[in-house]
Amino acid sequence: MGVFKAIGKGIGITLRKPRLLAILWVVNIVYAAIVAFPFVFLVQTELGHSFLGSNVRPFDLMWLGEAVLKYQDAMPAVIGGLVVSALLFLVLYVFLNGGIIGRLLDREGRPTLQAFFGYCGRYFWRFVRLFLASLVFLILTFGVILRLLSALMNLWLENAWTEWPSVILRNLHFLVALLLLSIVHMVFDYARIAVVADEETKILRALRQALNFLKKRFFRSWGLYLLVVAGFVAGTVFFYAVFGLLSGPTVLFVLLGFFWMQINVLFRIWIKTLFFAAQAEFYRSHPY
After folding, report:
1. CA distances (Å), 11 to each of 17, 61, 82, 122, in order?
2. Which of 72, 84, 115, 144 holds its CA 20 to 30 A away from the CA of 25?
């Protein structure tokens, strides 16, 4: 199966499973509401229905600065809450991945909520171990490879006569970092797929299967991954271009902006499922 055919089949699978997208959207809304509640409560307490409150934006630096000064004694608790929220998000992310891949690969099972969360629990600890293993790969990538690349760049820049080599190399360094990150992410995507598709219980064996699979078709697999990334970037640019046209003080613009933001959330969820669906189709069609 070719790259474009795998993406096409992945798109078809995600569109035939709207209930999966709905479940993920509801979970996302509930989690975001829980995390945002303290901040919304603070804004409501401080500004209420005042004229200033109607003009404050989410990233109003002046108001944020004043709030930080006023509540500086509570900042450790706020920062602690944000850290806990981030950790809980990682746990939720790993937990939901089992349900997503399980539902995408299960073509005959009923698309029920019970089945989705059953897959989440079934693969959770295996995916936790894969996540921890991915951290080791990320440390090696960014702590060793990129540091070595930075050292070589700095040696070369010491003899540079202008700023242009520095600007070009810094941008290249950033691009290399993104590409290496995409490779690590892709490898562990296929390891997760191997866990579910092959019912693999040993994560090192699943990782080895993913590497064996990629060894024979690395550039095609990477091309598939980067094409989906390009679609995500294009969709995000389009979203913000339209969102900029929806800014206004009227209730209609507020409602349209909120609706458009939910469309963006659904788009991001769909892209996430498309990554797994397309890669799973590619994986299944090529024996390793």
Report:
1. 10, 41, 35, 25
2. 84
